[in-house]
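It is time I had a proper look at our fold encoding. Can you supply me with one protein entry, sequence and fold together? It will help me judge whether the discrete encoding reads sensibly. Leave the record below and I will have a look:
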Amino acid sequence: MKRFHSRALLISLAGTALLLCAQPAAAQNGYEQNNDGQNGTPPHAQANSMNGDYEYNGTANWAGPYVGAHVGDAISEFTNEGSRPGPGGTDDNFTTGVQAGYNWQHGHMVYGFEGDGSWLPVDNHFAGGSYDQNWLSTLRARAGYAMGRFLPYVTAGLAFTGTQTNAGAGGSEGSVHTGLALGGGVEYMYNDRWSMDGQYLYADAPNEHTTIGGTTYAGGANHVLTVGVNYHFE
């Protein structure tokens, strides 16, 4: 788990750096205190609220399509059941990928859907074989409550993962497993086009069992922690 803590620290530092870089961009787009003394409300919000940039109350506009990319860490938990030695223990692995989605907004309430795909270099070797997880993809609904430039949200949907199990003389098998994905996060809109997102997901798709040569295997990335950036088209 030491590697997980070090990677989590690096991810946190990267997120902090992006947040600090966001502050000048926010100021240039009118987020500084206006003449009316209202913090966090763009000076042009009242005049231009009908053009879709911002709501009357100064809440950022989250509505519309977006695309982005993310990096993070995936905690992998491995088990095996049977007489043959198989994968076991807990490990963490670097992950990276892309996402795209669409939001609708009614006042402070924001809801929509998001799909993502992540590359995973999960490769758990054991005596006589290996268990590989090559990718993880999710399709989820999201719902959040916008507070100024921040959007805390919860998310739930389906997770899909591709695995390759090699049991040596017992044979090998490639599978695509399906399960649930649950989690949440906080997104920060630092100008009218770009946002930064920190997210946690629990994906139970890798817990599907595969039996080869009399031994049952299960494992893969169960907990995924990512930071990313999104570009909003509206």
User: Anything to note?
Assistant: The first helix runs from residue 2 to 28. The beta strands are 64-81, 89-106, 109-126, 129-145, 150-166, 172-189, 194-203, 210-212, 215-218, 221-232. The chain has a mean pLDDT of 75. The CA atoms of residues 59 and 148 lie 4 Å apart.
